[in-house]
Amino acid sequence: MTYKRKQRGKIKKEVVFPVAESLSAMPDKYKSFIVQLKEQIKTERLKTVLSANSAMVMMYWNIGNSIIEQQKNEGWGSKVIDRMSHDLKEEFPNMSGFSPRNLKYMKKFAEAWPNIEIVQRTVAQIPWRSNITLLDKLKEPDLRLWYAQKTLENGFGKDMLVFQIESQLHKREGNAVSNFQAALPATDSDMAKQSFKDPYIFDFVGNSQHIKERELEQSLIGHIQKFLLELGQGFAFVGRQVHLELGGNDYYLDLLFYHIKLKCYVVIELKSGKFDPGYISKLNMYLNVVNDVMCQPDDNKTIGLLLVKYKDKLVVEYSLSGFNNPIGVSNWENEIMKSIPENIKNSLPSIEEIEKEFGDE
């Protein structure tokens, strides 16, 4: 589009405003080309960001290691760090990160990770704020490395990393009671086991101890992003209350997911109370139907996950015996028990003790 600009009554110059041609006027392969190009740019931009973060974290490690060496060899005290902060800020006024507090974290970081190969391979690949969280929250080197690897694998942000540490993900992951070893090939059973945890922490559900199953389902769907994060990497949501019609009766799957890494459907059934062996039979029926009706030839066997409020491990193990479909059983918890201090929580009676007291065998 062209406009002619007037100056003092005369036409001075032509000003051209280029207008993009319509998409329909482009060649046939243009749409796929531009989509691929956009993805390529996004990928390269992400690589640039990650590369910049890695370079910064490595620089921080080198600074921290230099401070350690000088304090060890020259006997320098902590006051040197305050002076370092002043001099570095003066020399690099446009760079942040040289506060006394951050310099002390650099020293602590280098002390925590003396092996530079581990730094390069793992912790330099995650954000500096996440590294500070690992330093503040965890003392054991092996545990710190485990959470660093999980952060890298799952892309945990700082807040999610804090949540996973405080909810002790390392104790929950791979802890579901299941028959995976008997029902799945050896190559798949280990991956399936690590894909499920016990308990699941639904801190967004609220404090109700008497929440109904439909309310629980609605809450999980209402917070689907948090729910997916708690489920773990690889889960893709397919649907809720998926209708099945069998023998003239209607049945509804509570939640249906597809696990990208395991290449299979995952049926999740929610129960607000105590585990009942009958739940396994019904879930097994659902898995048979999904395998028969929904699965494609290249899909693996559908996995069932039963989430209950309470369970007895021995009862679950006997209940799972003999079933060929892979099924896991886990507890779910909301935030009320997490908010109780550990010393008080340990003094509370167990569910089994309460039931025994009231004669509910």
Explain this structure:
Strand 6 and strand 7 form a beta hairpin. This protein has helices at 30-74, 79-91, 100-112, 116-121, 128-137, 141-154, 158-166, 169-172, 180-183, 186-195, 213-222, 224-231, 278-293, 313-320, 335-338, 342-345, 351-357, and strands spanning 2-7, 10-16, 177-178, 200-201, 235-246, 249-259, 264-270, 303-308, 327-333. It has 3 domains: 26-115, no CATH class; 126-166, no CATH class; 174-357, Trna Endonuclease, Chain: A, domain 1. By secondary structure, the protein is an alpha/beta fold. Helices cover 51% and strands 17% of the residues. The chain starts with a strand and ends with a helix. The radius of gyration is 28 Å and the shape is globular. Helix 1 crosses helix 3 (100-112), helix 5 runs antiparallel to helix 6 (141-154) and helix 5 (128-137) runs parallel beside helix 7 (158-166). The chain contains 17 helices and 9 strands. Mean pLDDT is 80; it is low at 336-341 and 343-361.
